[in-house]
Every structure is written in C-alpha cells, then in structure tokens.
Amino acid sequence: MSRLRSAVRSLRRQLGEGRALRDLASLLSGVVGARLIQVLTIPVITRLFDPADYGRVSLLVALATTLNQASSFGYEGAIALPRQGHGARQVSRLSLILLLMFCSVLALVAWQWPTHWLPASLSQMPAWWLLLAAIVGLLGLNNVLQAWAVRRKSFGVIARSTLAQQGLTSAGRVGWGLGLGPTLPGLLVPYVSGLIVRAWYLTRLPSASPPVQPSATTPKTTAPPDATEPATVGAAARRYAGFALFGLPSTLIRALTQQLPLLLIGTFFAPAIVGLYAAAQRLVLTPARAIGQAGRQVALPRTAGRRRRGEPLFGPLWRATVILAAATALPFVMLYLMGEPLLVLLLGEKWANAGPYAPPLAPWAFSMLLVGPTSAVFQALEEQRWMLGLSCVRLGLFALAVLSARARAPHDVLMLVGSLAIAGVLANMLQLAFALWLAWRHDQNLHRA
What we know:
By secondary structure, this protein is mostly helical. Helices cover about 80% and strands about 0% of the residues.
C-alpha cells in the first residue's frame, strides 16, 4: 500500500512539472514573439529616429519603471498567495487604491517641482510630469492585472497581451516615423498605447470554472472559512504587511539597480549617448529580463502551492535552473563574442557606437535570466527579510561599482557600464544561491516534521 501511495505521489509530481513546462512554454511564446517583433522592427526605428530623442524617451520610461515598483507598495506580489478568491480580491483592491494615491501624489509633486529632481535630459521634454504619472499608472495597473492572471494561471492571456503591446508599440513607431516624421511623440504615443492595449487584454481572463453542483445522493458541503484569509482591504494590508515593509524596498532597489546605468548615463552624459546605450540594452538585457520574469510568474503559484501542500521545493527549482542554464548558455556566449558587430548590423551606422556595450551586458543578461524562476521562493515562503538584505547588498555592490568607475575614468561610459555589469552578475548569483538555500532549508524542515 505504501508503494502505491509513493507511485501516486511521484506521478502527481511528474504531471505537475509537465504542466509547469507547458505553462512556461505558453508564456515564453508571448515573450519570445514580442522580442522577435522588437528585433525585426528596431533596425527600422533606429534608422528613422535620432539617438537623442530615443535616449530621452528611454530615460523617461526607465524612471517610470523604477517608480512603478513602489506604486502599489509591493502588495500586488501577494495576490497569488490567498487560498480563496475573496482574499485575493481584497489584495487587488488594496493594490489599486495605493496605485491611485501614489500616482496622484507623483503628479502633484512633479507639478510643484517640475525640474528639480530629474536628469537634465528630461527637462527638455514638454509636459513630462503628465507623461510620467500616466506611465507609472498604466504600468502599475498592468502589474495588478498580470498578478491576477498569474494567480488564475492564465498564461496564454499574458502571452497574447505581451504580443499585442509590443506589436502596437513597434508598428506605431514605424508608422509614425514614416508618415508623420521622426518626432519625439512618435516614440512616446505608441508606447503608451501599447500599455493601454495590454491592460485591456489582461482584463479578458476566462471565467472561472463553475462549482460542481451536488447530486441528490451527495450531501451539500461548504468549505470552512480560512481564518488567515483577509476579509477586508484593511485586513489584507495587515496580513501581507511584510510585502510593504520588506518586499517593497527590495523590489525598489532591484528595479533601481536594473535601470541605474540608464539613469546615470542620463545624468552624466548627453542624450545621444543615452540613446545608444538604451538601444543596446533593449536588444541584450531586456529579452533576458523578460524571460526571467516569465519563469518567475510560472514558478510563483506552483511554489506557493507546493508550500501549502507540504511538498519539497529544492528539487524542482534546482532542475529548472540547470535546464535553463544549459538551454541558454550558448546564445549568450555568442552574444559576448560577436555582439558588437551584430548590434552595428542591426542598428545601422548612425548607431555604431552602441556595439561596444554588448560584451559587458551579455553576462549580466545571462545572470538575470537564471535568477528568474528561483526568485519566486522569497514571495512563496514570505521571506521578504532575506530579499531586503540581499537587495541592500546589491545596492552596495552597485555603489562601489559607480564610485570605482567614476574614480578611474569619470568620462568613460564603457567603464561605468562594465563596472555595473560585474556588480549585477555578482548580486544575481548571490540571490540565486540564497534562494536555493531557502528552498533546501524548507525541505529540511519538512523532513524534521
């Protein structure tokens, strides 16, 4: 009998991992498709638009992306955790209320102090404060809707929304540049439109399966209420306060360090140099970051489910990491060796100075991709304290990298990018090791129990 139970448990684990692979494949189809659209259209966009305008828009988006991490105070990360839909809805309402408050305060601050706290490149953009608040609001709304889709495991909807966003953004920029001329709104308006379309797609989740009606011979049963489930918005804020107290600072630091090269280049160098780096980052770092996030989105509900059922975590996460590393190592090695001429070929001669950024960015991109699936451990185990500590270490590494680069060669942008890339690789590998250690510790506690 015990052998039969062991065989059933083994079969369930195999089926669960098979479903996880199918979910990851579904999500990656959207991510890879979106990046393919980007790669196919960016040679046209870079030949239509000026590097300086591209740099200003990229800097605005980087600033909005960083601020967006604080827009819902990190509570959107808890939407996948409640057992019951009512508790998840309370967390979603709390996230949207905080998002509205944050964007209102941001617009007010930007209205009162419109040029005091921005990089010089953005001060040349008209009505930037309205754009900044609007972009942060749309990014935050997409985060909340996507977190709900992850909870429902509607990865096909997420994939289609990602494709629609990138398709509209890229096609809109090409069409605007060809029809109306290469102006700065031609880069901004399609991007904002893409965010709106993605939010619309994410609202079109399939209806939940209706509950099974009891038959005449089956007594009607109701699940007992879970005392840990938040019944109100206030209860949700208290129940998942750790996401705001510890998860928010760590997420904000991680987003800041990801966008730090662009923000620093925008502060110390001309907008054209910002545009050159932004184009290289979009082709090297952004796809790896998107694939890593896709892995985290698939891993989060499954890791949380394994924890609730008392199942081990280390084995599935370790296998996923090894498979991901083996499957993606060769493209990043090729990118490190041949990235410079490849970027020149894709972007055009006017953007030739973007090529040297590819070699230092390739190892950083590879580490970003690897750390994606295991980062779900911190949320699933509600270990935000560890994540905050690692984020502080990450910030310290990046601060040392900036100080070192500025001391050795203050006017060398490649020295700055290379130093930040080394710091990024070290921080990501440290986070990966700690995530696997937390999963191993969870399994050891299960064995002792």
